[in-house]
Amino acid sequence: MRILIFYFLALLASCDLQAQSKADSLLEARNFFALREHLAEGKVAYEPSRQLYYQCFLSNFFNQAERSNTLLDSVAFAGRLSEKEEAALLKLRMDNYAKQYQYRLAYQASKTLLSRYNAGFSGRELGELRNASLIWKNLSDAEPQRIAIGTGAVLPYKTDAAGLIRLKVNMNDSIADFVFDTGAGLSVVSRSVARKFGLKQLRHQVKVQSFTGKVVKARLAIAPVLDLGGIVVNNVVFIVFPDEALSFSGGYTIDGIIGFPVIEQMGQVSIEHKAQQIVVPATPQPDTLNNFGLDELLPVINIKYGSDALPFSFDTGAQSTLLGHLFYKRYREMIERTSEPYLMQFGGVGGSREVRAYKVPNLVLESGGRKIVFDSVNVKTIALIPKDKLYFGNLGQDAFRQFDRMVINFRHMYIRFE
């Protein structure tokens, strides 16, 4: 009897470890939608501290940076976590501070990470962390970004030769057309336009790596006032690129980019393609869709393919949807059966390169009950950047323009196509 009891208890312990292993695997893969669903099922009785450990990450992903840090402050993790997990929580805290424009606190967190946990990071991760630390150090004395929307705003836009949204921006009574790009982690301006706007560049150079792998050196600048026509944003951080880094083949150039921090602070944006306007309400509207999250500064949307729910990155600055090597690995048989390989050229800030890809015909994705239909869509077979190892693709303009309106809500965390 004692042997049976011991076996039963050991079996229960094994089940708990397997369940925790599943949660940890989902966290490692940064599949926060699946992690949220797994925890909500309530089939596993986690220790309270472990449950809160996962909730710290979920709160961060679903854009509740303040709540994430509150949970971090309230939970005594001492002695319960591995060094790798401790480092992950400190990195999470750094990201929470950055999203709240508390740059000095983000810098302090980065210094602790580099001094105490640097042995646990790969060479690439250390490089990224040192660069982030330099950014937050540069911004340590900067005032937090602030936005004034008033009773709401309607921002007319035009599309450029690449099909990207361009908004008129006004700084110091000078006007330029900037790309509206949720995929840009920080706003961007060319060196010549920064001079035109009278922006003072900060002292230290930072490194920005394009998806071609080339590193471009740039500086930071802060715009005291950015007027979008009905919306005024103060203390906007810009990366100042050399003009040649924002020049592309065929004479296509970019003066600047309105990036994620400005767009996120709007709370909700409704991109209306036929009317060519962006509507920003005074108060973001709730919805139960909950299909949207933020991996650091990368927007992520939960997409269905058949019966599978797949996390995709999301980029209003991308002309076309692109499926990644994770999609290729999972659906390789279908892809190779329905299409032929070819060499696809990828270009971005800093250069271009060719990779093996497929053009898959007649592919249907789904979001919030809406079908997104592609006559054909490209699939790359290798990971070009670290995020390619986490997300199944990047949703671009060819998906959004199938609908009259796309609503992006950063407070209730949903993307709805109408």
Summary?
The protein is α+β, with helices and mostly antiparallel strands. 33% of the residues lie in helices and 34% in strands.
Topology:
Blueprint: H1 2-28, H2 32-41, H3 48-61, H4 65-74, H5 83-99, H6 103-116, H7 123-138, E1 146-148, E2 152-156, E3 158-159, E4 165-171, E5 174-180, E6 187-190, H8 191-197, E7 201-209, E8 215-227, E9 232-241, E10 256-258, H9 260-265, E11 268-272, E12 277-281, E13 292-295, E14 298-305, E15 308-314, E16 322-323, H10 325-330, H11 332-338, E17 341-348, E18 351-367, E19 370-380, E20 393-395, H12 397-400, E21 405-409, E22 414-417
Parallel strand pairs: 5-10, 6-9, 15-20, 16-19
Antiparallel strand pairs: 1-9, 2-12, 3-4, 4-5, 6-10, 7-8, 8-9, 11-12, 11-21, 13-14, 14-15, 16-20, 17-18, 18-19, 21-22
Structural description of this entry:
By secondary structure, this protein is an alpha+beta fold. The chain is built from twelve helices and 22 strands. The termini are far apart. Mean pLDDT is 89; it is low at 1-19.
Keywords:
single chain; 418 residues; alpha+beta; nine-stranded mixed β-sheet; eight-stranded mixed β-sheet; 22 strands; 34% strand; disordered N terminus
